[in-house]
Amino acid sequence: MARPRKPLLSRDRIVGAAGALVDSEGLEAVSTRRLAAELGVSGPSLYNHFRTKDEILEAVADAVSAKVDLSMFEEGDPRDWREALHDWALSYRAALTAHPHIVPVLARGPGRRPAGLKVADAVFGAMTRAGWPPAQATHIGALMRYFITGSALGSFARGFVDDRTAYDPADYPHLQQAHLLADHQEKVDEGAFGTGLRALLDGLGCQYEAGGYRKA
Amino acid sequence: MARPRKPLLSRDRIVGAAGALVDSEGLEAVSTRRLAAELGVSGPSLYNHFRTKDEILEAVADAVSAKVDLSMFEEGDPRDWREALHDWALSYRAALTAHPHIVPVLARGPGRRPAGLKVADAVFGAMTRAGWPPAQATHIGALMRYFITGSALGSFARGFVDDRTAYDPADYPHLQQAHLLADHQEKVDEGAFGTGLRALLDGLGCQYEAGGYRKA
DNA sequence: ACCTGAACACCGTTCAAGT
DNA sequence: ACCTGAACACCGTTCAAGT
């Protein structure tokens, strides 16, 4: 075939196919050969559009970050910082749980991914505008990311095996219901996320008032 | 060589070498061939002691979990649940940051790893004894894990590239100091962890009191 | 510029063969 | 029981060759 008159591939087509493959079969299913086959092309062709396989996965991750709602952090938005953080966290978590297999890539940090940086920028900007000192605003961006990516990465409930015999009462006296966790996984993880988010925001509220911070 | 009179390998030796390799060169450096070479043995030999490479990594992860201090959750310990949770979180985080490369494996959940299950058991037992209803105790175990593994996995500061030109002021007006984050990485991550942990515990304290819970 | 097949240096795992 | 080498079916990436 050699070079076609119209390019067979584009960065967007590659990212789209890679994302679909990640979603349907997981990160380990993505090999350059497999992905190329999915696109009707031979393996090395991908290297005309991306320098490495990792760059492709970074682009898939960034596409997920781009879906996070940031409107609550805009200058004119009426929500106060607590409410904005709350709504953003829900949107962020929803984006991640819709594409759980790419979360390990996202959890590495924003790196050079534009949408990842946009998120960090929006949070930091909104927190400083709300009166938080820069160091505290940085901490808030970090700790919210810890909590959100941590919750999306290690679904707590899915982390327990669905097998009664794994939990010997002599060894784990308090885990005798653990094998049931996998069943109502979603409810447990959502409940824990909600409880944690509320605690986090309540606690930050205390620190905000104790510090005497207020809107500039 | 064939079968030696004294076994060349043992599960412990394999786990030790794998852990050392993970710590020094990262997860991707661990291949069965490379690990076997490190042990002076041929690749397939490992399969006499572990069923898969993943089982070896699970064992490495469990060795790290085993280092987490759980004494604060023992029945006789004088610490109240808030203080116990606090001290445990610090010990957990210290164990993870000492072996950052294995965290992605740990973050998948306890699975069948004995030390991982011991941790979950201890937290759940202590929270129910403190008066939390079972569902809430489960949530607390989950959300603490989200926060702790999230913080160890995606070092926030290391997540930003150390390159001024990556942060165009037009795109990211609030990230003009971001390239400095990598420098005082440890301080930022520790600060954010401390801020988040305090907020989490303060917030949980509010919920505890609002719920009217108390020690059985 | 953009695709191809061949090639390089790897993988995890299985298995028959050795003692 | 516990090690070996050979083999299978894969990897990511490079590169010369084609148009």
From TrEMBL, chains A, B:
GO molecular-function terms, A-Z: DNA-binding transcription factor activity; transcription cis-regulatory region binding
A Pfam family of this chain: TetR_N
Signal peptide boundaries: none
Domain HTH tetR-type: 8-68
GO BP terms in the entry: negative regulation of DNA-templated transcription; response to antibiotic
Keywords linked to the UniProt accession: DNA-binding, Repressor, Transcription, Transcription regulation
Chain residues forming the annotated DNA-binding region: 31-50
InterPro entries: DNA-bd_HTH_TetR-type_CS (IPR023772), Homeodomain-like_sf (IPR009057), HTH-type_TetR-like_transc_reg (IPR050109), HTH_TetR (IPR001647), Repressor_TetR_C (IPR004111), Tet_transcr_reg_TetR (IPR003012), Tet_transcr_reg_TetR-rel_C_sf (IPR036271)
PROSITE patterns according to UniProt: HTH_TETR_1, HTH_TETR_2
Annotated protein name in UniProt: AcrR family transcriptional regulator
Organism of derivation: Streptomyces candidus
